[in-house]
Amino acid sequence: MHQQRSTENAILIGAGTALADNPSLTTRNWKGTHPFRFVLANKKELPKNLNIFQSPNPAQILDIPLSDIKTVLQELYKKDIQSVIVEGGSKTLQAFIDTELWDEAHIYTSENTLFHSGVKAPELDNQQLKNHFNIKGDTLRIYQRL
Protein backbone atom coordinates (compact mmCIF):
# COMPACT_ATOMS: atom_id res chain seq x y z
CA MET A 1 0.00 0.00 0.00
CA HIS A 2 2.78 2.43 0.86
CA GLN A 3 4.43 1.76 -2.49
CA GLN A 4 1.21 2.54 -4.31
CA ARG A 5 0.74 5.76 -2.34
CA SER A 6 4.14 6.94 -3.59
CA THR A 7 2.87 6.77 -7.19
CA GLU A 8 -0.21 8.97 -6.70
CA ASN A 9 -0.63 12.73 -6.26
CA ALA A 10 -3.12 12.53 -3.41
CA ILE A 11 -5.07 10.43 -0.93
CA LEU A 12 -8.63 11.23 0.11
CA ILE A 13 -10.58 10.02 3.15
CA GLY A 14 -13.76 11.03 4.91
CA ALA A 15 -14.16 12.41 8.42
CA GLY A 16 -15.33 9.04 9.76
CA THR A 17 -12.10 7.32 8.72
CA ALA A 18 -10.00 10.18 10.10
CA LEU A 19 -11.73 9.93 13.49
CA ALA A 20 -12.03 6.14 13.73
CA ASP A 21 -8.62 5.11 12.39
CA ASN A 22 -6.43 8.22 12.85
CA PRO A 23 -4.38 7.20 9.78
CA SER A 24 -1.12 8.82 8.72
CA LEU A 25 -1.64 8.22 4.98
CA THR A 26 2.07 8.47 4.21
CA THR A 27 4.65 6.32 2.44
CA ARG A 28 6.54 5.75 5.69
CA ASN A 29 7.37 2.10 4.86
CA TRP A 30 8.48 2.84 1.31
CA LYS A 31 10.91 5.28 -0.28
CA GLY A 32 9.07 7.82 -2.31
CA THR A 33 7.15 11.05 -2.30
CA HIS A 34 4.37 11.44 0.23
CA PRO A 35 1.08 12.23 -1.51
CA PHE A 36 -1.00 15.26 -0.63
CA ARG A 37 -3.65 14.33 1.93
CA PHE A 38 -7.26 15.47 1.82
CA VAL A 39 -10.20 14.80 4.11
CA LEU A 40 -13.87 15.42 3.37
CA ALA A 41 -15.08 17.06 6.56
CA ASN A 42 -16.46 20.11 8.24
CA LYS A 43 -13.50 22.03 9.72
CA LYS A 44 -15.05 21.82 13.19
CA GLU A 45 -15.38 18.01 13.06
CA LEU A 46 -11.72 17.10 13.35
CA PRO A 47 -9.23 17.72 16.15
CA LYS A 48 -5.95 19.21 14.95
CA ASN A 49 -3.89 16.52 16.73
CA LEU A 50 -4.88 13.81 14.21
CA ASN A 51 -2.03 12.16 12.31
CA ILE A 52 -3.24 13.53 8.97
CA PHE A 53 -2.58 17.09 10.18
CA GLN A 54 1.04 16.34 11.08
CA SER A 55 4.02 16.69 8.75
CA PRO A 56 4.76 15.86 6.01
CA ASN A 57 2.13 17.66 3.96
CA PRO A 58 -0.58 18.24 6.57
CA ALA A 59 -4.00 17.27 5.22
CA GLN A 60 -6.27 19.85 3.70
CA ILE A 61 -9.94 19.79 4.56
CA LEU A 62 -12.46 19.80 1.73
CA ASP A 63 -15.71 21.04 3.23
CA ILE A 64 -17.85 19.55 0.46
CA PRO A 65 -20.81 17.21 1.06
CA LEU A 66 -20.27 13.56 0.22
CA SER A 67 -23.29 13.81 -2.06
CA ASP A 68 -21.31 16.14 -4.37
CA ILE A 69 -18.39 13.99 -5.51
CA LYS A 70 -18.14 15.84 -8.82
CA THR A 71 -17.34 19.07 -6.94
CA VAL A 72 -14.76 17.21 -4.82
CA LEU A 73 -12.96 16.14 -7.99
CA GLN A 74 -13.22 19.64 -9.48
CA GLU A 75 -11.58 21.08 -6.34
CA LEU A 76 -8.76 18.54 -6.55
CA TYR A 77 -8.27 19.39 -10.23
CA LYS A 78 -8.01 23.11 -9.34
CA LYS A 79 -5.19 22.12 -6.96
CA ASP A 80 -3.44 20.39 -9.90
CA ILE A 81 -4.14 16.91 -8.52
CA GLN A 82 -4.08 14.45 -11.42
CA SER A 83 -4.52 11.19 -9.49
CA VAL A 84 -6.11 10.36 -6.15
CA ILE A 85 -6.45 7.23 -4.06
CA VAL A 86 -9.71 7.13 -2.14
CA GLU A 87 -8.88 5.27 1.07
CA GLY A 88 -12.03 6.31 2.84
CA GLY A 89 -14.56 4.19 4.61
CA SER A 90 -17.49 2.46 3.01
CA LYS A 91 -19.62 5.63 2.69
CA THR A 92 -16.90 7.62 0.92
CA LEU A 93 -15.95 4.72 -1.34
CA GLN A 94 -19.56 3.94 -2.18
CA ALA A 95 -20.18 7.59 -3.13
CA PHE A 96 -17.44 7.38 -5.78
CA ILE A 97 -18.71 4.00 -6.98
CA ASP A 98 -22.35 5.12 -7.20
CA THR A 99 -21.46 8.20 -9.25
CA GLU A 100 -19.16 6.07 -11.44
CA LEU A 101 -16.29 8.47 -10.81
CA TRP A 102 -13.57 5.86 -10.42
CA ASP A 103 -11.15 4.13 -12.78
CA GLU A 104 -9.61 1.32 -10.72
CA ALA A 105 -10.35 -0.42 -7.46
CA HIS A 106 -7.56 -2.16 -5.55
CA ILE A 107 -9.00 -4.70 -3.16
CA TYR A 108 -6.72 -6.33 -0.61
CA THR A 109 -7.87 -9.50 1.13
CA SER A 110 -6.20 -11.68 3.69
CA GLU A 111 -6.65 -15.10 5.19
CA ASN A 112 -5.50 -13.59 8.49
CA THR A 113 -8.12 -14.38 11.12
CA LEU A 114 -7.04 -11.48 13.32
CA PHE A 115 -10.04 -9.43 12.18
CA HIS A 116 -13.43 -10.85 13.11
CA SER A 117 -15.74 -7.93 12.42
CA GLY A 118 -15.84 -4.64 10.63
CA VAL A 119 -17.74 -2.41 8.27
CA LYS A 120 -19.36 -3.93 5.19
CA ALA A 121 -17.26 -3.37 2.08
CA PRO A 122 -18.62 -1.22 -0.74
CA GLU A 123 -20.24 -2.97 -3.69
CA LEU A 124 -18.67 -2.60 -7.12
CA ASP A 125 -20.90 -2.60 -10.18
CA ASN A 126 -19.80 -2.50 -13.81
CA GLN A 127 -16.32 -3.78 -13.16
CA GLN A 128 -13.87 -6.24 -14.63
CA LEU A 129 -10.95 -8.01 -12.97
CA LYS A 130 -7.81 -6.53 -14.53
CA ASN A 131 -5.13 -8.33 -12.51
CA HIS A 132 -4.41 -10.10 -9.24
CA PHE A 133 -1.29 -10.65 -7.13
CA ASN A 134 -0.32 -12.66 -4.09
CA ILE A 135 1.67 -10.56 -1.65
CA LYS A 136 3.08 -12.30 1.41
CA GLY A 137 -0.05 -14.42 1.86
CA ASP A 138 -2.48 -11.61 1.06
CA THR A 139 -4.23 -11.06 -2.26
CA LEU A 140 -4.54 -7.86 -4.26
CA ARG A 141 -7.22 -7.80 -6.93
CA ILE A 142 -7.33 -4.86 -9.32
CA TYR A 143 -10.64 -4.08 -10.98
CA GLN A 144 -11.35 -1.54 -13.66
CA ARG A 145 -14.63 0.20 -14.34
CA LEU A 146 -16.34 -0.84 -17.56
TrEMBL record:
Any Gene Ontology biological process: riboflavin biosynthetic process
Keywords: Hydrolase, NADP, Oxidoreductase
InterPro entries, A to Z: DHFR-like_dom_sf, RibDG_C, Riboflavin_Biosynth_HTPR
All residue ranges annotated as the Bacterial bifunctional deaminase-reductase C-terminal domain in the record: 1-109
Pathway(s) this gene product operates in, as recorded in its UniProt entry: Cofactor biosynthesis; riboflavin biosynthesis
Enzyme Commission number, as recorded: 1.1.1.193, 3.5.4.26
NADP keyword on record: yes
Gene3D superfamilies attached to this UniProt entry: Dihydrofolate Reductase, subunit A
GO molecular function, one term: diaminohydroxyphosphoribosylaminopyrimidine deaminase activity
Protein name: Diaminohydroxyphosphoribosylaminopyrimidine deaminase
Species of origin: Nonlabens tegetincola
Lineage summary: Bacteria, Pseudomonadati, Bacteroidota, Flavobacteriia, Flavobacteriales
